[in-house]
From TrEMBL:
Transmembrane segments: none annotated. Substrate binds at residue 236. The keyword Electron transport does not apply. The glycine cleavage system catalyzes the degradation of glycine. Gene3D superfamilies: Aminomethyltransferase beta-barrel domains, Aminomethyltransferase fragment, Probable tRNA modification gtpase trme, domain 1. It comes from Pristionchus fissidentatus. Keywords: Aminotransferase, Mitochondrion, Transferase, Transit peptide. It catalyses: N(6)-[(R)-S(8)-aminomethyldihydrolipoyl]-L-lysyl-[protein] + (6S)-5,6,7,8-tetrahydrofolate = N(6)-[(R)-dihydrolipoyl]-L-lysyl-[protein] + (6R)-5,10-methylene-5,6,7,8-tetrahydrofolate + NH4(+). This is Aminomethyltransferase. GO terms for molecular function: aminomethyltransferase activity; transaminase activity. Its EC number is 2.1.2.10. It comes from the Eukaryota. The keyword Cell membrane does not apply.
Amino acid sequence: SSISVQVTMAFTLSALRQPAHLARSLSTTATALAPKKTCLHDLHKAHKGKLVEFAGYDMPVQYADLSIKDSTIHTRNGVSIFDVSHMLQTHIKGADRVAFMESLCTADIEGMAANTGSLSVFTNDRGGIEDDLIVSKTDKDFLYLVTNAGCIDKDLPYLQSNAAAWRAKGKDVNIETLDGRGLVAVQGPGMAAVLQEGTDIDLSQLYFMNTVVGTVFGIENCRVTRCGYTGEDGVEISVDPKQAAALVERLLASKKSSVKLAGLGARDALRLEAGLCLYGNDIDDKTTPAEAGLAFTIAKRRRQTLGFPGAEKIVEQLTKKSWNKQRVGLIAEPGRAPRGHAPIVHPLNKASVGYVTSGCPSPCLGKNIAIAYVDKIDSKAGTKLLVDFGQKETGVTVTKMPFVPTKYYVKKN
C-alpha cells in the first residue's frame, strides 16, 4: 500500500465554492504520493469535470454544466450519476466468513436473508467507531463489503491481519479485494425508469439494501445494490472497469429522465440534507454508536451475543442510556453557515454545550443546516442554542434529521 500521512482537508466554500467536507469516502487520511485515478477519470475530463485531490484520488467536485447548488436540486428531481470507484470493494470468503465479520462489526449477518445488506460499523475496544461500511450477504460463497476510500490504509490491513489470525487457529476465511473495479452511484427519483430499460433485473423487486448481479446495458456481471448517500432512491453499480465509462454514457443518453453527472460538492450537500454521517467528521474512533444516533446498526441479536470490539460498553450505553453527548441536526438563522469545529454555546450563560461537525447552505431548503454534537440535556428538538464564530454568534435550533425526507425504496409489509 502507498505511504500515507495525516493531512487536514483545506477545502472551503470561499476558496473552491464547495462544501468543506465532501463525501462518505472522506477521512483525514490521504496518500502522500501522486493522486490515483479511477476508471472513469477520462470520462470526467471529457465532460469538463473540475478535478480535485480527494482521499488519494483525482475526483470531480463539480461539472461545467451545473453549479453545486443546481446539481443538488437536480438529484432530487431527476437522476445524478456519481463516480464512487475510489471506495474499497471487498469479498470475504471461506466457510467461517460470517462469524469472522461478526467478530469485527455490529451487523447480524447470520440473520440476513440472501442478497440483502446493512449499514454497519467497525468498532474498537473503547466502543468507538473505526469506520462505517455496508456489508451484504450474497447467495454465493462470499460477503460483499464496501468501505471508505479514506480508510483503506487502516481497514484493509485490519481485515487481512484478523483473517490471518483466524486461519492460524484453523478457521476458513480469506480477503479478496476488487482492485480497480468501477462503482457508479445512480441517484434520484428517475433512477428506476432510467435503469429498468437497460437491465434484466426486476427493479420493482429490488428493495432498499438488496443486492443482485445482472446485465446492465449489455454489460454482464454488474452487481446492483439499492442504496446510496443522498437520501433519494438509488443504486450503486459495481462494474468491470473497462466497461464503466460505457455504462455511464448509456445512462446519460437515457430519455426516461434528465440524467447528469454530479460531483463531490453536490454529494456532500445531499448527504447533509439527508442527515447522513461522514466518517472523520461526524463519527470517529472516539464516537460511540449511541452518541452518533446509530444505535440501529447494533442488531438485536448482537446486543445479546456481543462478540464485537467494545460490545459490552456499547450495549451498556444503550441499555442504561448512559451517554453524555448526542448527534443532532441544527437549522441556523439567516447569515453565515455553521462549519466544522465551530463551538456551540448556551444563549443564557454562554457555557460551551457542543460543537459543529459538518454544515452548509442547504440548496433544497434555502436554509443553513449543520450536524453537531451537544450535551444530551440540550439535544431535544426545538432547543435554541448559539454557534460561536468568534466575533459573532448565530442562533440555531436543534432539529430532528433528516432535514429533507428520505425516499428509499422500502418493501411495504
